[in-house]
Write a structure and sequence with these properties.
By secondary structure, this protein is α+β, with helices and mostly antiparallel strands. Helix content is 38%, strand content 26%. The protein has a domain of 111 residues. It is rod-shaped and about 110 Å long.
């Protein structure tokens, strides 16, 4: 072989090595870019979900309308919603419940043990979900003289994750 042919072969090998290097670098870059897109989408979804949890307390189905209280939930309405078959498929979440935090209650609420209970589960499909919650005031009419009583509670919503 002549000296010129060897130089051409060396140059060809260097060009192939450079092309392989840039292909691997590009593959690495696009892998990082796609993982960043997925995490950004998950982050945006999480913000949207948290805002939805906050907005739910102000929806007409939950809102305490006696006083001007934007984060108050009518515990009586929530119990009534649980018993309504027409609201069974109203919310498109795998899980939705309202829980009393303080004073702490125990067990699922029914008409028999209300208001001495801890949680009202409105939706539980059994699917896998990630849950988010927001603290609210749980208000209800109490006693024979009809005074308003508010306690600390939280709304818990479950959402499907982005795959």
């Amino acid at each position: 072989m002549k000296k010129g042919q060897i130089k051409i072969q060396q140059m060809a090998f260097v060009l192939v090595a450079v092309m392989i290097f840039f292909a691997l670098a590009g593959l690495f870059y696009f892998t990082l870019l796609s993982s960043d897109i997925t995490s950004s989408a998950e982050s945006l979804r999480e913000k949207e979900v948290k805002e939805s949890v906050r907005k739910l307390s102000g929806s007409p189905e939950f809102a305490w309308t006696i006083d001007d209280c934007p984060s108050c939930v009518d515990f009586d309405k929530v119990l009534a919603l649980k018993e309504r078959a027409s609201y069974e498929d109203y919310w498109q979440f795998p899980y939705l419940s309202v829980e009393r935090v303080y004073p702490e209650g125990t067990g699922e609420c029914t008409r028999q043990n209300y208001p001495d209970c801890g949680e009202i589960t409105l939706v539980n499909t059994g699917e896998e979900y990630v849950s988010y919650s927001a603290f609210v005031s749980l208000c209800r009419r109490e006693g024979g003289e009809g005074y308003n009583k508010c306690e600390l509670g939280k709304i818990i919503m479950g959402f499907k994750t982005i795959q």
